[in-house]
Design goal:
This protein is of the alpha/beta class. The protein has 36 helices and 32 strands. Among the domains are: 402-552, VC0802-like; 575-704, NAD(P)-binding Rossmann-like Domain (Rossmann fold, 3-Layer(aba) Sandwich); 712-893, 2-Layer Sandwich (Dihydrodipicolinate Reductase, domain 2), CATH 3.30.360. Helix 5 packs across helix 7 (151-169) and helix 29 crosses helix 30 (749-758). It binds nicotinamide-adenine-dinucleotide, L-homoserine and sodium ion (NA). One of its GO terms (biological process) is threonine biosynthetic process. Residues 414-489, 495-572 form the ACT domain.
């Protein structure tokens, strides 16, 4: 990586740096292959265009001009020695093209072009039959042996397909030679199929003989297509070279020694530098044609790659490489640039589009890298599978390479005290499972030995459960076993990565991501090889789990689905702030925040992908549906694409607040400036806080006291560090602060109240401010935070709403009638002024005496409470540590911008998804 920086600024220096690296690497072995690959990819231009590449033997580089990974002959000192007995000269570059790549004449021509562009001097290309031909060939055999004489028509179709392709692709002498061979083959096949038809049976070798023709024809066509350009090219019938032994279970084992001998003989006869070889087919030691069964042509390429000690094996396919997760489930999944052999194994087990594990074994032995590339997107560099580079920095991001899932599983749990210390229980359990032919996908047993749990495919679980019940009938009835239990509808999520083994915190991070997304883990397995951590979860949670884990390891952005309730002043301002903030979060913090719904009291808009925040107001007018809180929550919580979900309650509604408990329980984080939950019934509040502490779900309510001022966090900070709160006293109402700060000179009380409302400081109903209720709620919130168990009704409140106006039915009516009380207020103020004092509306939490109070007081003009301006709040904390001089927090305590600004602090958003608990408080 260091030399990458050099490379970008000084190409010449890069060359020098690259050379040193190579020389060093040649001595130190192969463990840095993938690192080299990354470096050379960038430096390739200088290597590729330089004639001085001979000393770089055996390395791969990205040939920018041709846009492909290319070996620079010879691999390493060790490999060079190991291959001493093989044809001398440059190392082989092995390619494999599957059926899709060989689908049409045009595609075969493209394959020829790719092969011709590979600058390696020796190229061995393994091909599959043309797309669908293998199936057509099996069909011929099936028809013939079931005495269906339409096999003759089907054979004609096969002939036709190859003839047309060859005519498109080739001409002249080459075409004539190919067609004559095709004719001969087809008439031989006809004879053989006739024999099968008569016998009504095909032996495996007959069938393999017939089927293998697809590869014979595609290899010959490609070899002629290459020759057309003037490049000498031979084709190889791999049945002459590759010897395999059947192992049962539809697999074969290559006989490397015998194959190597035959290969040398083949080379002695045909010393070609570009060879097109047939994939899939081979011979038994007795020279009977056979196939490599399900491992197919990839296996052929890997075996031949290991026989010629290739510099690399490139598997051409129709995907850009191996993804970090199934891209249908995680659209942000990335193509992995490298994978270790073991990681590729793990991934292929989980059905990722990787090689079959057996395919990797032959090349792994010689550390030959395999590169998966997309023949339809040559510009994609692909995924290199090679030996893992030595652990460099052990960062989490590099530890987990990819995630995979398996659905449709069931967990079986065998439990009971009778198992502990009794050898053979596991053997009996799995013996029973084997007897019903079920495949065990994962096993977990805690060391207490009281239960064994394992996962099997859902479709096999009934038989497994029945077999276990029979097998353990006695143990169950005597109570030695308490149960054989089946948990249906499970999925497996596996994290794959070689470096997990040596890095602390990987599983913690994984489980934290799952916990944050409120996903329950049913079972866990981690083999001591630690290439894989497997968790079993409910199938319905699987995609969310996959996405949460994938983003947590920074393989993709953390997605946050946000629902906004109450787009009033604060909600609106928050939405505007988010409009700008979302891009910054995405860019700087890797957080993809989407507002998935906005609901007012009458209408709501929902979106599956995120509402355009510059349009939401129009949408709420034109595209809205009637608001329905239940549907709103469902919409947010059921979207599998967004594992992390946040509700922001910007109402002052008690009913909305009453749902927080359920939302937190669902794993939905709640952020709110609404005071109703924390100042509501004590019992409900305690239940909510208990749940919050026990869960991984966040509940942020900083804005409920002092708006954006750090009041709650300051209090929590004091408590967490062991300070003792004695008293909290202050001006908690932005509205009342504004009113008394500005109620001066000739101004009337009602005018100033109207101004405060206009400025957005008041509650939706300003009487909540003037009645002292809003301050009382804040006093209660802080009192409870300090450990007092008080109800709102325990706080004596001096209301500033005249008796006569308390019964007004609307806030507007109240505002209209307020001026008639201006005279009373004028008198009160003058009295205070005459005494050199000001009026201030204060709240007190008296922790020592376990009580609170809210009242209008008079303060001397030099008192700190008399020095405020605007909507300032001032809150003084008197504590064991801050006894002589209280700790004071002061600043604007109401207003749209400062309040809305109290929620989307990037740190807070990040912590929602990453697991740091930002706001905690002392346990009661
Ligand atoms: N204004 C401030 O300076 C300030 C400061 C701190 C906290 N707060 C708190 O912020 C909250 C919002 O204040 P605001 O000034 O934006 O009030 P607002 O009246 O402007 O907005 C409230 C919005 O919520 C909507 N609403 C009410 N009930 C609803 C329901 N059941 N479902 C959906 N929507 C509903 C209303 O229609 C309105 O649009 C209040 O709880 C308030 O105490 C405000
Ligand atoms: N109405 C409240 C808003 C802040 O909670 C106030 O005036 O302080
Ligand atoms: Na605050």
């Amino acid at each position: 990586m260091r030399s990458l920086a050099v490379a970008s600024s000084h190409p010449g220096a890069a060359f020098a740096a690259g050379r040193t690296r190579h020389l060093r690497a040649a001595v130190s072995g192969r463990d840095a292959i993938s690192q080299r690959w990354r470096c050379e990819k960038t430096q390739g231009r200088s290597f590729g265009s330089s004639p001085r590449t001979s000393h770089l033997q055996g390395r791969l580089y990205m040939d920018v001009s041709k846009n492909m990974l290319t070996p620079i002959a010879a691999v390493s000192v060790e490999q060079a020695e190991a291959s001493a007995h093989l044809p001398k000269g440059d190392m082989w570059s092995v390619h494999k093209f599957g059926g899709t790549c060989m689908g049409t004449s045009q595609r075969i021509q493209n394959v020829a072009d790719i092969v011709l562009r590979d600058p390696s001097e020796r190229k061995l290309v393994v091909v599959s039959a043309m797309h669908k031909v293998t199936d057509m060939m099996y069909n011929l055999v099936n028809k013939a042996q079931s005495r269906d004489d339409s096999y003759i028509i089907a054979l004609d179709e096969v002939f036709e397909k190859h003839m047309t392709t060859a005519k498109d692709l080739l001409g002249g002498e080459d075409l004539a030679r190919f067609l004559s061979q095709l004719h001969t083959d087809v008439s031989n096949l006809k004879a053989m199929l006739r024999a099968i038809y008569i016998a009504g049976h095909a032996t495996e070798s007959f069938s393999d003989f017939v089927v293998g023709h697809g590869e014979l024809w595609s290899a010959q066509m490609l070899s002629f297509a290459i020759k057309k350009s003037g490049t000498p090219c031979s084709w190889m019938d791999m049945r002459e070279v590759l010897v395999v032994n059947p192992t049962g279970s539809n697999q074969v084992d290559p006989d490397y020694l015998e194959s190597e001998k035959r290969l040398e003989k083949w080379f002695a006869r045909q010393p070609a530098e570009t060879i097109i070889a047939t994939g899939f087919i081979a011979s038994t030691p007795e020279n009977i044609p056979t196939t490599l069964k399900r491992d197919g042509s990839d296996f052929s390429a890997a075996i031949i790659g290991s026989l010629v000690k290739a510099g690399q094996v490139t598997i051409w396919t129709d995907v850009d490489g191996v993804f970090s997760a199934d891209p249908r489930k995680v659209s942000e999944a990335v193509i992995l640039s490298t994978l270790s052999y073991q990681e590729a194994w793990e991934m292929s087990y989980f059905g990722a589009n990787v090689l079959h594990p057996r395919t990797i074994i032959p090349v792994m032995k010689y550390n030959i890298p395999i590169i998966i590339r997309n023949m339809f997107n040559i510009s994609a560099p692909g995924t290199m599978i090679c030996q893992q580079p030595a652990n460099e920095d052990g960062d989490l991001e590099a530890c987990v390479k990819a995630f995979a899932t398996i659905d449709k599983l069931a967990l079986v749990n065998v439990e009971g005290t009778g198992m502990a210390g009794v050898p053979g229980t596991a053997s009996v359990i799995f013996g029973a499972v084997k007897d019903v032919g079920a495949n065990v996908i994962m096993i977990s047993q805690a060391s207490s030995e009281h239960s064994v749990c394992f996962a099997v495919p859902e479709k096999e679980v009934a038989a497994v459960s029945a077999a276990l019940h029979v097998r353990f009938r006695e143990a169950l009835s005597s109570g030695r076993l308490s149960k054989v239990e089946v948990i249906h509808n499970c999925s497996i999520l596996a994290a794959v990565g070689l470096r997990m083994a040596s890095t602390p915190g990987v599983s913690a991070t994984l489980f934290d991501a799952l916990a944050k997304a409120n996903i329950n883990v049913r079972a866990i397995a981690q083999g001591c090889s630690e290439y894989n951590i497997t968790v079993v979860l409910k199938q319905e949670d699987c995609v969310r789990a996959l996405r949460a884990a994938h983003s947590r390891f920074f393989l993709s952005k953390t997605t946050l689905a946000v629902g906004i309730i109450g787009p009033g002043l604060i909600g609106r301002t928050l939405l505007n702030q988010l409009k700008d903030q979302a891009a910054i979060l995405k860019e700087n913090m890797n957080i993809d925040l989407r507002v998935m719904g906005i609901t007012g009291s009458r209408a709501m808009v929902l979106s599956d992908t995120g509402i355009d925040l510059s349009q939401w107001q129009e949408q709420l007018k034109t595209e809205a549906e009637p608001s329905d809180l239940h549907k709103f929550i469902q919409h947010l919580s059921e979207n599998q694409l967004f594992p992390n979900r946040v509700l922001v309650d910007c109402t002052a509604d008690t009913n909305v607040a009453s749902h927080y408990y359920d939302w937190l329980k669902k794993g939905i984080h709640v952020i709110t400036p609404n005071k109703k939950a924390n100042s509501g019934p004590l019992e409900r509040y305690l239940k909510l806080r208990t749940l919050q502490r026990a869960s991984y779900t966040h509940y942020f309510y900083e804005a409920t006291v002092g708006a954006g001022l750090p009041i709650i966090s300051t209090l929590c900070g004091l408590l967490e560090t062991g300070d003792k709160i004695l008293r909290i006293e202050g001006i908690f109402s932005g509205t009342l602060s504004y009113i008394f700060n500005n109620f001066e000179g000739t101004r009337t009380f009602s005018d100033v109240v109207a101004e405060a409302k206009e400025a957005g400081y008041t509650e939706p109903d300003p009487r909540d401010d003037l009645s002292g209720t809003d301050v009382a709620r804040k006093v209660i919130i802080l009192a409870r935070e300090s450990g007092l168990r008080l109800e709102l009704s325990d706080i004596p409140v001096m209301s500033l709403v005249p008796e006569a106006l308390r019964s007004c039915s609307t806030a507007d009516e109240y505002m209209q009638k307020l001026p008639s009380f201006d005279q009373n207020w004028g008198r009160e103020r003058k009295d205070a002024e005459a005494a050199g004092e000001v009026l201030r509306y204060v709240g007190v939490v008296d922790v020592v005496n376990k009580k609170g109070q809210v009242e209008l007081r008079r303060y001397k003009r030099d008192h700190p409470f008399a020095q405020l301006s605007g909507s300032d709040n001032i809150i003084a904390f008197t504590t064991s540590r801050y006894k002589e001089q209280p700790l004071i927090v002061r600043g604007p305590g109401a207003g749209a911008e400062v309040t809305a600004g109290a929620f989307p602090i990037p740190d807070a958003w990040l912590s929602l998804s990453s697991g740091e608990i930002v706001q905690t408080s002392k346990d009661e």
